[in-house]
TrEMBL record, chain A:
Transmembrane segments: none annotated. This protein is a component of the acetyl coenzyme A carboxylase complex; first, biotin carboxylase catalyzes the carboxylation of the carrier protein and then the transcarboxylase transfers the carboxyl group to form malonyl-CoA. It holds the Pfam family Biotin_lipoyl. This is Biotin carboxyl carrier protein of acetyl-CoA carboxylase. SUPFAM superfamilies: Single hybrid motif (SSF51230). GO terms for biological process: fatty acid biosynthetic process. Residues 2-78 form the Lipoyl-binding domain.
Automatic annotation (TrEMBL), chain B:
Keywords: ATP-binding, Biotin, Ligase, Nucleotide-binding. It is an enzyme of class 6 (ligase). This protein is a component of the acetyl coenzyme A carboxylase complex; first, biotin carboxylase catalyzes the carboxylation of the carrier protein and then the transcarboxylase transfers the carboxyl group to form malonyl-CoA. This is biotin carboxylase. It catalyses: N(6)-biotinyl-L-lysyl-[protein] + hydrogencarbonate + ATP = N(6)-carboxybiotinyl-L-lysyl-[protein] + ADP + phosphate + H(+). Residues 2-447 form the Biotin carboxylation domain. Its EC number is 6.3.4.14. Residues 121-318 form the ATP-grasp domain. GO terms for molecular function: ATP binding; biotin carboxylase activity; metal ion binding. Signal peptide: none annotated. InterPro entries: ACC_Biotin_Carboxylase, ATP-grasp, BC-like_N, Biotin_carboxylation_dom, Biotin_COase_C, CPAse_ATP-bd, PreATP-grasp_dom_sf, Rudment_hybrid_motif.
């Protein structure tokens, strides 16, 4: 069943650890509990977005380096 | 060159500061804004705003092309870069000038020269400014290292030439340790970086961060005395003062004149700061780098000298010669600045953006608050956490700290935690009051006596004096 995971924090969303590095997750990838999905930068400090639920990543709602607000849809998971 | 209108290529409290100086000079201001900053205080105060891109700074405030285009399209004839962002980007300064605009700051070549640590060190040495003693290149072998270390003076740092960010550094207190550590360090450097090259540098265990403010017009330079910024966390300054109370008057004069020599040698134009390490144990000072821009902590200098630095840098950019002579600049009293940030000191300084639901500002004699805050403002999560700088000025250092604490007690920011409780605890700390601090002091103090949860709510008396042994 597909469900939408929300951003836990407001900030800037990153899909990779650094520019040029591979993305943590791509659409279609399997997600295990504890996997890093991306990073959110809040005032120059980086917090990993960690999966609390396993499944298959269906789609991102937010592009790399986009602004997100807390509670905004981040990605869809087929749990 | 005549200036009628300044484009402010920055945000936050420094943008507000520049708008105020510009307005007092009768100049129009256009404020750069990202998509997330349309309602910031500087945008409200400026005569006009210009969108430079989306929230992410690399696409807005750091986007050189977008900033120059916005400055031209908004009819400005000058650009003030503030601090951070593009303020020390020589390519940006060149683009601004190539577009026929005045860059309010040094010449691009000066930014490039002083931004290169090796070139800046050479210029300093040529101007007779002391630099941290060390080898000029890689040390060939242990025998050479012994000779060089004796010349430099123990303790020495053994650094991997290919290392960086503090990696591959060892400290030898004497020749016996050097003899043991040098071959180890070389082997480790070869394994870690593929290059066993090492160089040596004097290790300063208890250093203070002292910096000298200068103003130049491209020919002549003056100093506006020094600041001490030893209280730092993660290499970020937390609390700054002017002057540096630890210096004797002789040391002060030698330090400040060395800064003028270097500024004049590089034909410095505008406001700049020369950073030094001061070794308490020996009384020596060593130039480390120059910041070719206005700095966050400039207000403490303004308070003790009475010189408006931002106005002065705009006037020099307009082509005026420095109106100040060195003998006109005198120290009056002492000023202390607390950086108020949107961070929770009771939760490991977690960033805390959010909406300011209520605000009471401090005031009164000798108190200045340079801030981006207003009631109802939502502090965005995309940028630096600095909310404002609370500055207290009084006749003496002790009185200035009392005044700062009084003002901190008046400041109420509702809706988000700030670092104000940290500053109240610092103001009450015996080591801070005695001024016996160094650049690692604050992190050691926080590790030994973390700001407990009650601090945020407790009155000063209850939060005072964390149980920490004062460093000698």
């Amino acid at each position: 069943m597909a469900k939408t995971i929300q951003a836990p924090l407001p900030g800037t969303f990153y899909r990779a650890a650094a520019p040029g590095e591979p993305a943590f997750k791509s659409e279609g990838d399997a997600v295990a509990v504890g996997d890093t999905i991306g990073l959110i930068e809040v005032m120059k400090s980086f917090t990993p977005v960690v999966a609390e639920e396993a499944g298959r990543l269906l789609a991102f709602h937010v592009e790399n380096e986009d602004a997100v607000m807390a509670g905004q849809p981040l990605y869809d998971l087929d749990a | 060159m005549a200036i009628t209108s300044i484009f402010i290529a920055n945000r936050g409290e420094i943008a507000v500061r520049v708008i105020r100086a510009a307005r007092e000079l009768g100049l129009r201001t256009v404020q750069a804004v990202s998509a997330a900053d349309g309602d910031m205080l500087a945008a409200r105060l400026a005569d006009a705003t210009a969108l430079v891109g989306p929230a992410h700074a690399t696409k807005s405030y750091l986007n050189k092309e977008a900033v120059v285009r916005a400055a031209l399209e908004s009819g400005c004839d000058a650009v003030h870069p503030g601090y951070g962002f593009l303020s020390e980007n020589a390519d940006f300064a060149e683009m601004v000038e190539a577009a026929g605009l005045v860059f309010i700051g040094p010449k691009p070549e000066t930014i490039r020269q002083m931004g290169d640590k090796a070139r800046a060190r050479q210029q300093a040495q040529a101007a007779g400014v002391p630099t941290v003693p060390g080898t000029e290149g890689v040390v060939a072998d242990l025998d050479t290292a012994r000779v060089e270390a004796a010349r430099i003076g123990y303790p020495v740092m053994i650094k991997a030439a290919a290392g960086g960010g503090g990696r591959g550094i060892r400290v030898a207190r004497d020749e016996a340790e050097l003899t043991t550590l040098f071959p180890q360090a070389s082997g480790e450097a070869r394994a870690a970086f593929g290059d066993g090259g090492l160089y040596l540098e004097r290790f300063i265990g208890r250093a203070r961060h002292i910096e000298v403010q200068v103003l130049g017009d491209g020919e002549r330079a003056v100093h506006l005395f020094e600041r001490e910024c030893s209280l730092q966390r993660r290499r970020q300054k937390v609390w700054e003062e002017a002057p540096a109370a630890c210096l004797t008057n002789e040391q002060r004069i030698a330090l400040c004149l060395s800064a003028v020599r270097l500024a004049e040698r590089v034909s410095y134009r505008g406001a700049g700061t020369l950073e030094y390490l001061f070794d308490d144990a020996t009384g020596e000072f060593f130039f480390i780098e120059m910041n070719t821009r206005i700095q966050v902590e400039h207000p403490v200098t303004e308070m003790v000298t009475g010189v408006d630095l931002v106005r002065a840098m705009i006037r020099v950019a307009m082509g005026e010669k420095l109106a100040l002579r060195q003998q006109d600049i005198v120290l009056r009293g002492h000023a202390v600045e607390a950086r108020i940030c949107a961070e929770d000191p009771a939760a490991d300084f977690r960033p805390s953006p959010g909406t300011v639901t209520g605000l009471t500002l401090p005031g009164g004699f000798g108190v200045r608050f340079d801030t981006l805050l207003y009631a109802g403002y939502t502090v965005p999560p995309f940028y630096d956490s600095l909310l404002g700088k609370l500055i207290a000025h009084d006749d003496s250092r002790a009185a200035a700290i009392v005044r700062l604490d009084r003002a901190l007690g008046e400041l109420v920011v509702e809706g988000l935690p700030t670092t104000a409780p940290l500053h109240r605890a610092l103001a009450a700390d015996p080591a801070v009051q005695a001024g016996t601090v160094h650049t690692r002091w604050l992190e050691e103090w926080l590790a030994a006596a973390p700001l407990a949860v009650p601090l945020a709510a407790a009155p000063l008396a209850a939060s005072a004096s964390p149980t920490l042994v004062t460093p000698a």
